[in-house]
């Protein structure tokens, strides 16, 4: 396993490996950048097939957090943590306390929050050991609703830009992944009049959306080829790749998953095919906006107002992409890099 020669290493400031024998903790923290402030990003607990896969994930996710925070105008850099292990069978209070102590040892360069495989209750345990955790039950709590609202805003913006529609009535959306974010997104979409096609590896999650919102259930293999207007990836990353891109019939890709593009060239391929891509770290920034506001006097109304700013930001990216004849993923990266070059950030005003 290597770091510096990894294709996913992007001049990360630090990559720290941690372990604790008694609790079984094995974790990696990637601090990509602290140029705009402390590195902020969630902790993902996952049963990775190898340490190399865990490293790849933390490198990609931490870089994405840097760009996400920069484009969102937050005074934070980008970081991420991964704990190696099945969260259903390996997560214990002792493991979380050990992880909290490990985060505390970094002295505030990295601030953690919940992610896939971790919860608000887990963050409550972490704060017993460190000041550098966010998303508590008596604070901002679960950031998933804010993430879903941001993705909903992104879909509306993309539909207006690509299809010339100001409403979502009758718009067909294929949602891949019905977790906390995907379920709330489906609710927003259904209330707006969209027609839903949904899939998930958990059949009961699909059944709930079918019952609640009149969605059509699709198998996990067939979701890419649904004759939809929008494909919304809301599960894990790298779902836009050489195999799936050939199947896509949607004219818009906008979802909540991180690192949706398997490689950067897949964003360029979407552009060549005339598919409008809402860069994932722009569309799904609602969660980090939510967590970033926890210490500044949390208000759900205030947070959602800030999250609505995802729409104008995406519109700016779409227009620049059209004008420059450049893929949206490239334009988004340039926008993030422009803001990173300006140094310490300032919180977007509500």
CATH topology of the largest domain: Rossmann fold
Instruction: State the shape.
Output: globular
Helix segment tally: 12
Highest CATH level, the class of the largest domain: Alpha Beta
Number of strands: 12
Order of helices and strands: EEEEHEHEHHEHEHEEEHEHHHHH
What Rg do the Cα atoms give? 19 Å
Report the CATH architecture of the largest domain.
3-Layer(aba) Sandwich
Output the CATH homologous superfamily of the largest domain.
Answer: NAD(P)-binding Rossmann-like Domain
- How many domains? The number is 2
Largest sheet: 6 strands, mixed
Termini distance? 44 Å
Which residues sit in consecutive blocks of at least 5 with pLDDT less than 50?
A: 346-350
